[in-house]
Amino acid sequence: MLQVQYPEQEGYLVDATENLSAGGAFVRTERPLQTGDVVPLVLSFPGLLAPLELSSVVAWIRPAGPGSPAGVGLMIPEGHVEERKRLAEILARIHNESLSPQRRRYRILLVEDNPHIMEMYEYVMRKLSQSGQVAIEVGVAKDGYDALEKLRADQYDLVVTDLFMPVLDGFELLRRMRLEKSCAKVPVVVISAGGSDTAAQAHAAGADVFLRKPVRFVDVVETVSALLKL
User: Fold this and answer.
1) Rounded CA separation 48/5 (Å)
2) Average pLDDT over residues 70-95
3) Same domain, yes or no: 161 and 86
4) Angle of helix 170-179 relative to helix 196-205, nearest 10 degrees?
5) Are 110 and 157 within 8 A, CB to CB?
6) Quick check: helix, strand or coil at residue 159?
7) Average pLDDT in the 82-109 region?
């Protein structure tokens, strides 16, 4: 899953890819696009992929449905040889890194005030750890204040957080993290029910990736795996 930004909205985290191929990508989006529209975009992923500018064409559209957000299939025109070549190189790099996991222990901090959602996230992390390729230790925090206390006391490789929480919300947690030397560089995945405006605010506060609730297990797994370079 790669971040998708649009040149006319520079710095505005809008969408994410769902599938990627050498000829294009499927992008989850609520933008009012039509088949045949030309869409300039930038693909990136913190720590894995430097921003890659592409020019694509909308090949097909998927309406929103139960369990499947709206999106569009984007095709890189065949005449854009260099862009297709760079996209193929990205796919090869992602594939090669997935074949060479770092065999070490990772510590992930989950920040969520809903105990049922917290259980789901813990289940996903256990599944990753049970793959046999990596050991994952999970810490939990019930709000942003609790999370800051834990980040100051221990070292974590990744934070997964909600935004709308009591005591100290996720936005303020992000801002304070980016100001503290001990955790300023820790990647943060935000999982929230908010829309595009919320995603933009989270990105501005310091989030690396924004996933929208309800979130699929596979999206959490792919995002965590990519950020930790598993």
Assistant:
1) 16
2) 80
3) no
4) 20
5) no
6) strand
7) 70
Is the domain of 59 the same as that of 12?
yes
Q: What is the pLDDT of residues 154-204, one digit of tens each?
A: 899 999 999 999 999 999 999 999 999 889 999 999 999 888 899 999 999
Radius of gyration of the chain (CA): 18
pLDDT, the chain, mean: 83
Strand order in the sheet with 209-212: 135-141, 105-111, 158-161, 188-192, 209-212
Rounded Cα distance, 175 and 20, in Å: 32
Count of residues making up the chain: 230
Whether residue 118 is found in the same domain as residue 46: no
Label residue 56 exposed, middle or buried (CB < 10 Å: 0-12, 13-18, 19+).
buried
Tell me the average pLDDT across 59-74: 84
Residues 111 and 95 in one domain: no
Element (H, E) at 105: strand 105-111
72 shares a domain with 154: no
Residue 66 domain boundaries: 3-99
Q: How far is CA 216 from the centre of its chain?
A: 12
Tokens 């005030």, residue located: 113
Alpha helices per DSSP H over the chain: 81-99, 115-129, 144-153, 170-179, 196-205, 217-227
Question: Which residues share a beta bridge with 106?
Answer: 136
Gap between the Cα atoms of 78 and 55, Å rounded = 11
Provide the whole-model pTM: 0.61
Same domain flag for 84 and 145: no
Q: Domains in the chain: how many in total?
A: 2
